[in-house]
Amino acid sequence: MKIRRSSRGPVERAREEVAHGRFERSLSALTAMSAAVTGAEVYLEHYRGSFGNKWMWSPVLLSPPLVVAGIGGVFSRKWAKTALPVAAGLYTANGLLGEYFHARGVARKPGGWRLWSYNLPMGPPISAPGLMAMVGGMGLLASMLRRER
Predict the structure, then answer these.
(1) What single string gives the DSSP state of each residue in 56-99?
(2) Mean pLDDT across the chain
(3) Which of 2, 114, 118, 133 is deepest in the core (most CB within 10 A)?
(4) Which position has the higher pLDDT, 28 or 13?
(5) Which helix (H) or strand (E) holds 17?
(6) End-to-end CA distance of the chain, in Å?
């Protein structure tokens, strides 16, 4: 005889919500936290680079709106479906643009890509803007999912 429990544990409940595509609030919160950490890291690294290019300010300026939209998405379905996809889309696009700028930065070093074994570790980090694009992608995914109960 199988015993039915009336109350499920938090892990089982979370697993069921994710299995049924209901992960909007949790992923919105994760997006907000990740954007805050990523924005702080980007600021420190671009500060170290003296904000030599005006485009270096764009990820710093786009991080706070994504944090706010992510927090708003936790508490409001309307925010999750309106503000979050806009902020996350801009963040993703900016991360992809950053990939171009960082690759161009490596190419501008003496020897360019021919001396990749030196210029890749010494130039701008190629994979760092990809982190921004992934955080933005999490926000876009959160805006597409159904809300948890």
Answers:
(1) GGHHHHHHHHHHHHHHHHHH-HHHHHTHHHHHHHHHHHHHHHHH
(2) 91
(3) 133
(4) 28
(5) helix 10-19
(6) 30
